[in-house]
Design goal:
By secondary structure, the protein is an alpha+beta fold. It contains three helices and five strands, in the order ββββααβα. It is elongated, with a radius of gyration of 22 Å. The two termini are 20 Å apart.
Amino acid sequence: MKKQKGIKFLCDLCGELLEEGRPRFICRGEIFCAFDGLEIEEDLERSSESVRAEIERLIRELEKRTEEDLRDEVHFPFRLDLCRKCRDRIYRALKPGGELEIKN
Ligand SMILES: [Zn+2]
């Protein structure tokens, strides 16, 4: 949320000025990782070297990512100030049977 001179806001999606006294919409939510348990298949054929190689590969993958990215993958809460037009776009995308299409 960006605030200017204490009386105005900017839409967090399109940047439109939201003047005090006009409708402003707040979108709050969170994206978090759901974990339903780990399934480990018994693989008696697998050598300790191949297990070690797999662990080392995973560690290298994790080292490429930032702490912030890893944290946000687990839990990412957010809050947006929106103009009416962006509120309507998000509503149409998220409602059941909606047109969910998040563009870059
Ligand atoms: Zn907007």
